[in-house]
Each structure stands twice: as C-alpha cells, then as structure tokens.
Amino acid sequence: MEFDYIIVGGGSAGSVLANRLSARGSNQVLVCEAGEDTPPEKVPEEILDSYPGTAYLNDRFIWSELKVTTEVISHNDKDAPKPPLRKYEQARVLGGGSSINGQMANRGAPTDYDDWEARGAEGWNWDSVLPYFKKLESDQDVKDEWHGGEGPIPVRRVPEAHWSGHSKAILETFKRAGYKYLPDQNGFFEDGFFPITISNLDEKRVSASMGYLNADVRKRENLRISTRTAVTELLFEDTRCVGVKALVNGKPEQFRGREVILCSGAIHSPAHLMRAGIGPEGHLRDMGIPVRQALAGVGQRLMDHPSIAIASYLKPKARVRNELSRRHMHLGMRYSSRIGGAPAGDMFVVCTSKNSWHSVGEQIGAFLVFVNKTFSETGEVKLNSPRWNDEPSVDFNLLSDRRDLDRLMDAIRKLAPLYADPAMQAVTSNPFPAAYSDKVRQVGAITTKNKILTGIAARLLDGPKFLRDYLIENFLMEDFALDEVCQDDDRAEAFIRKAAVGVWHASCTCRMGADDDPMAVTDNQGRVRGVAGLRVVDASIFPVVPSANTNFPTIMTAEKIADTILKER
Questions:
Q1: How far is the first Cα of the chain from the last one, in angstroms, to the nearest whole number?
Q2: In a 3-state reduction of DSSP, which class is residue 395?
Q3: Ramachandran angles phi, psi of 467, nearest 5°
Q4: How far is Cα 453 from Cα 278, in angstroms, rounded to an integer?
Q5: Contact, 354 vs 415, CB < 8 A?
Q6: Which helix (H) or strand (E) covers residue 364, if one does?
Q7: Is the domain of 114 the same as that of 249?
Q8: Radius of gyration, CA atoms only, the chain
Q9: Among 119, 140, 442, 511, which is most exposed with the fewest C-beta within 10 angstroms?
Q10: In sequence order, what are the beta bridge partners of 240?
Q11: Which of 56, 78, 83 is nearest to 395 (CA)?
C-alpha cells in the first residue's frame, strides 16, 4: 500500500502529526513505532502513574542500550581519556518521551522563540508559536489570553492541599527569601516561583499518544498505527525519499510513501539521516556510507540542559505519602543569574520531594537546578557503524561553555542557604550535593533485590542520627560536602564537572535555518535540504534548546508544521 505520509516514530511529534494529517480523509497515514502500543483502556499502569519513576527507569519502555557521555571531551588531545559512558533514557513506546517523562508542561521564554527566528527559522517567533501552544492544551485551572481550553492535552497544577510537607516548607522558604509567587508558570514570563504545570488529569498521565491518538482517532480508516515496527532503512529514488524498510514484529516489510517524516528524536533522527548518506561528508566516508547529500550540520550542535542537585534527608512528616497525589514535584522556580550576558529567567529549579520509586528514594528530597538557557552547543551524534541496530555515539559536551559551569556554581551558593530557613529545618536534615551517578542508577533499577535492599537501608536511615550521618556521608554523597562546594571554587568546579548531567532534553541535531546557513539541516518547515520527500519534525530541528522541558515545545512544533503541510496540499 502506498501512503501519503510515513511517520517514523510515534512519540510526541509523531502522535500530533498522525492525528492532524489523518484528519483529512484523503490522506493515507502510516505511523511506525519501534516500541509497544498504549491503546485506550490498556495503557500500562507504569505509564499512567502520576509519579514517573516507574516508567522512565523501566527498560521495557526505553532504548536500553543507548549510552552517552556528558563531560567535555578534549578535541586537542587525542590521548586524553574519554569520559565515562552513562545510560541516557530515551523512550521506545508509543507517545515517546511524553509516555515516560515528568509530565512537565513548560513552554519556555518568549525570547527563546524570537531567538529561533533570529537564527534563521523564519516564522518561529513568540507571536507565531503562541497560538500553537494554546492549540495543544486544555488548561483546567486558568482561562485567559495565554491559554487554550480545547486542546488534546489537559494541563493542571496539583492543589497545595495535596502537596508533601517538604513542598509546603519550600513554599514558605521561597517567600521569606524574597522570591515572587507566580500563580501561573506559563503566564506572563518573569522571575518567581510557582506550582508546576503538568500534563496530567485526575492524577494520571496524559501522554501525546493518549491525547492525540484516542479511540475516535484510531477508528479512522486512513490511519495505520504499526507498533513494534523498527525502521531499518530509508528508501530512495535518486534524491527523493520514497519509503522505508522496517521490521514489523521481527519480519521485514517495505512501505512506500509520498513523504517520509522522521520523528525519532534528536539522537535517532540524525542517525537515520546519516545511515541514508545524508550528513557530514567526512564522517560518512569513514563509515563506508556513500554520500547522498552532504549536510555538515547533521548530528552536530547537540544540546541539553546541564543540571546538578542539592539533596537532603526528609523527615517522615515531609514525605510523599498520602492518597491525594503521587506527584513528587509540586513547586518550581526560575530566576535570572545575570552571568555572562544570559537573558532573564535563564535558571530553573525543580523542587522534588522524592528521589526514586524505592524506600530510600522516598526519604530524599532535592533542589534540582538546571541551566535553562544553556550556551554549550558543541555536542554531537555520530554513527558507530552503518548498521541500523547499533546505537550511535553521543557526546553532549555539557559545560563546554564556561558560563554554564559558572551559573551552576552560583546556583549552589544561592540555594544552599535556604536549608537554614526554619521551615526547611523542620522537615529536612543532612543537605548534600547530589549526583545521578551509576551507583544511583543501579539502585534505581526496578528489581526485587533493590526493593529489599532499599527497604533495609531506609529503616537504618530513619534510625539514630549518628547512623544516618554515617550512611549519607559514605553511601549517598559523592566525595563532596556542601560546605566545601559553597566555599571552595576548585571543589565546586570538580563536583559540577563530575556530577552535571542532562535532563533528557536532547535537541538541535537537525536544526532549522536559513538557506545560507551551512549548518542548517532543514528549512523552517523541517524539509531536509537537497532531498525531496523527507522531513524531520521533532526536537532535533530546534535552532537552540528553549528554556523549557522539551515536550511541549516539541508538540507545538509538530502542530505548527502539520498546519503548514495541510495548507500546502
């Protein structure tokens, strides 16, 4: 069967495009998703859970072999040791990241999108994208000029009465520290703290697939959703993409289409292009891949938001243990660092009242702080081989711009004194700089063994103070004390360089840009330069990562391009 549109990847962008393009009955639309389906009434409980830790730590829903580096790589010293590889959870399930992420409904700053247009993405300024942010959402709490009320994705805020004791203490602490309370995170953009906005209804996740591929949409005869379908090759006639090869439940098939749209994310979309001979000429030749279209920007300038955390022990009354909400993030805060020419609102803090799904995780809260407007743009995605099932080489090069490191150092010194507030003293103790290390990841694996071991450790942590002090200093801390990273620049830098990780916001590896930009991979509608019948629509086409969790910007991007595609026809 010949399709009008073949969508490679059923994540946030793919779900949007499948809905909008198939709404026109004359369009034949195919979605190829490598992971499993999340059909109405049969969504896995781990995905429905308002607490996301049981989904994103589950190998069932991710590309479990994907490993990345985050530390800066020396390109001048070939003998320098390569930074350690870390697992980087990327979704492999219908709904993509929206099925496993923290459900954060964050748009970013208006200046982000004005920056997109300034970088060559004509028609992507704030005034142009705001209607599509409004189109995607149905805000349950706020009705004003900033919000939509009829979109597929519900948006709400957890009521304060449902918060943990830890979150309520942070609210009081922020007030006393002089930060401004903002009732709406996605209203007028300014510094302050606010209840986190989430894509969640009735205390359950609403992913892009749940919102856009509901039962009524799935009844459309012109829409085919093919899950457990791994695309292995893009098919071409000369320089026109005419379809894909795929393994459907392990069996090879071919699908022909008038247009192929890659929606595989900022790591796998550029990998698809490079395996098809579209990308940096030298790298393709090194891989033995004939060059179909030389595009230097494919896989280049990978970005994420570098992040560190300050954690603490939570006293029993402060923990997330009620029947009203399983959410562990209730409050957020943004502020302006005024470092290195950064724009307003360049820093973001998420207040977490739970660290993981297990018993010890319930005893740890944190300020998770990330550089929302990052300047580091030197990450890259390259192939390890031409084979479709070999994960690419991914180097984020976080903190390659010194200003990002300086702002995280400043953040530690801004946040650490908050633990001295009486409200925080009443609910926390033992604050320490925290790292999402391999040790933490191993304990976070969802296994019976970890459940038993953390249950034992949790009882010890709730025991005598001397024992808790010993356990935190020797098992939870990563060789750095909070006092020393606040007072010693060298120790602060050492901690940040070791501990900083991305927050699963991979972006920018197939950037939109102007015709005269040699690093632009796509035009302002995601069309791949020099190749017909092929588009990229996902976070990889962002000109620069916005000051936001990337799920809503990705959905907005797909909404906007879907609108253009329908108008073009």
A1: 21
A2: strand
A3: -70, -40
A4: 49
A5: no
A6: strand 364-371
A7: yes
A8: 23
A9: 442
A10: 237, 532
A11: 83
Q: 534 has which bridge partners?
A: 260
Q: Which domain holds residue 330?
A: 159-195+307-373+401-499
We report the CATH number of the domain holding residue 20 as: 3.50.50.60
Are 9 and 264 contacting, i.e. CB atoms less than 8 angstroms apart? yes
DSSP-derived secondary structure for 87-105: E---B-BTTGGGGTS--B-
Segment 442-449 long-range contacts (CB within 8 Å, at least 24 positions apart): 443/356, 443/358, 443/360, 444/53, 444/57, 444/356, 444/357, 444/358, 444/361, 445/57, 446/54, 446/57, 446/58, 446/357
**Which two structure tokens, joined as six digits, stand for 285?**
């030749």
User: What one-letter code names the amino acid at 553?
Assistant: P
Counted domains in the chain: 2
Global pTM value: 0.96
Q: What is the DSSP string of 470-499?
A: HHIIIIIS-S--HHHHHH-HHHHHHHHHHH
- List residues with catalytic annotation: 505
3-state secondary structure 149-211: ECCCEEEEECCHHHCCHHHHHHHHHHHHCCCCECCCCCCCCCCEEEECEECEECCEECCHHHH
Among residues 198, 133, 116, the alpha carbon closest in space to that of 159 is found at 198
Residue at 84 is within a domain = no
Q: pLDDT, tens digit, for every residue of 165-186?
A: 999 999 999 999 999 999 999 9
pLDDT of residue 168: 97
Query: Which residues, 6+ apart, have CB-to-CB distance to 258 below 8 Å?
Result: 2, 3, 4, 5, 533
> Locate tokens 């580096």: which residue?
69
